[in-house]
Design goal:
This protein has 141 residues and is α/β, with parallel strands linked by helices. It is 50% helix and 11% strand. It is globular.
Length: 141
């Protein structure tokens, strides 16, 4: 089955115990940038109403503790591809795509893994680049 590359919103849901049926049976991965964004939102403690941190803040204490612990120590069943592997891929993809760092890492990870990408919100430039590379993307808000 094709691996799934999760953006920070989907990663948040999985770590809170909420999954999509489309993810069942797939190997799960995320990118460094998406993981960092989730960590900053959840562990930064500044706003409890943000898109990424709000769902954690609204959990009952016991579930929030478990979910926050999963953010602090990403579970072993969620892969994170090293920039050691992605840097050369990013270099090659940069010839054909003009994306920001977050988008380039996502495109490179999807390409390296041959993964389907799961986004919580539309990302037109990333979606167009994924289509040009013949990679599938699903947007589930």
């Amino acid at each position: 089955m094709t691996p799934a590359l999760l953006d920070d919103g989907h990663l948040s849901a999985v770590l809170r115990g909420i999954g999509l049926a489309d993810l069942d049976g797939r190997e799960l991965f995320t990118t460094g940038c998406w993981y960092v964004r989730l960590c900053q939102a959840v562990l930064g403690g500044r706003r409890a109403s943000g898109t990424l941190c709000g769902p954690f803040a609204s959990l009952p204490d016991s579930l929030r503790s478990r979910a926050t612990a999963a953010v602090m120590q990403l579970p072993n069943d969620i892969g994170l591809v090293s920039l050691r592997q992605l840097a050369p891929v990013i270099g090659q993809l940069r010839q054909d795509h003009s994306l920001n760092v977050l988008g380039m890492e996502a495109l490179a990870a999807a390409s390296y893994l041959r993964a389907d990408v799961f986004l919580k919100t539309e990302s037109p430039k990333l979606q167009a680049a994924l289509a040009l590379e013949h990679l599938a993307v699903q947007v589930h808000e």
